[in-house]
Specification:
The protein is an alpha/beta fold. Helix content is about 40%, strand content about 15%. Among the domains are: about 100 residues, no CATH class; about 40 residues, no CATH class. The chain contains 16 helices and 19 strands. The strands form three sheets. It has an eleven-stranded parallel sheet, with no helix packed on it. Strands 1-2-3-4 form a four-stranded mixed sheet. Strands 14-17-16-15 form a four-stranded antiparallel sheet, with no helix packed on it. This is Protein nlrc3.
Amino acid sequence: MAAEVRRGVADEAAEEASQLVRVHLGLERCADAGGAADTRLEAPLGDKAEAYNHDLRFQAAVGDALKASGVDLTGLDLGSDDGVMVGTVVAWMESEPSALTSLTLDWGKVCGRVREALLGAVRKTHTLVALSVGEERAMPLNPLQLNGREAVPSLDLSGKRLGPASAAVVAAGVSVNGVLTSLNLGFNDLTEEAALGIVRVERQRNKLTSLSLARCSIGPTGAAEIAEYVSGSAVLTTLALPHNSIGAEGAAAIAEALRGNGVMTTLNLKGNNIRAEGAAALASALRVNGVLTSLDVGSNGLTEEAALGIVRVERQRNKLTSLALENCGIGPTGAAEIAEYVSGSAVLTSLNLCNNNIHVTGAIAIAEALRGNGVLTNLDLSGNNIGGETDYIKASEVEGESKEVGAKVVYQGREMVVSEGVDSDGELKLADRTGILAIAKALEVNGVLTSIDLRGNNLSDEGKKAIQDAVSGREGFKLEM
């Protein structure tokens, strides 16, 4: 155990504690620690470390070191409930040390008594602002923010490499926090059980309006427990569970919770492999749910028909302001039906159809809907081959004076542009510009849209220019190509 002394302990005592503890860890030989007479200190202790825990001088040094503002317990043997130093450390934690601001230990190597004492300290501390629990590369946690003594209403702990130990600390702090209303623990290294620990605390606390548990290894069983939480919550308005594995069974449980829920407005189930069965359950729930306004079911292995099942319900329901159907197998026919939905919706402001295959004819249908739509502000059509590029085809099947890149030609009765010139096999590629040009024309008359994503569509230079010209001069417009 090393100690950084800022206040609360004499320099001499702190130095003795630091040296003795380093010897205990086998980091220094006896001579380097002041020439102590104990023969056990003449070499790194190795397997004799446990015996040294009983040394009264060592225990006294630990006692002094624990008065420091920064304490590292990783070198102490705290693995057994009846260990010699366990009582000292537990008593110290329970005393609410007033100088302590930074604490480090290895959760995986300490016993249950120490863990419980630590969680109790997290709930009660008025000083501790940096806590590390031995998870590699994990961000230290701030217990004062967790327990609410630093009154922050929103905590974003996403992507901080937190694991189950950190989740236990978060749960302990949040359990006594009266101000926190938004918590994001997504994209860490949590297990399902660790994530559910947070949920169980919140079921009792009932204050979060927003909870994000993205990529937390949540499966069908975990989803069922979360569904019970949703059913009983009168305050949770946003639930984000993207990139888990809840499957159709988990989606059905969430859908059942939605039937009787009157507060949740935003649900993100992206990347959960809910498939057609799960989508059908959600569509059925939407029929009787009057409050949900934002839904993301992208990248769930849906067929076009499954995705359209949700669209058809929503055409009657007309409540969603945001709908994400990324990578849902939607082709030109499905895009045409979605375009009809867009034309008739007076509330939909955001539509995500990226990574489908609506192609040229689908783009034309969407463009037609944009012409008369007065509410849609954000549209994502990236990755849909709107540029209409063909596979390699025989140059002999193409009509036109020139087969050079950019030349206008006719193929199967349609005017197209050469996107790749004739190769050694006598083949070329063509691009159908009508889809992207239709969108450009629609943008010229649509004054509401503020963002459009057209990346990954094999757009020709002419198509890009048409889009740029259409939105030129529109302050704040976000265009991605």
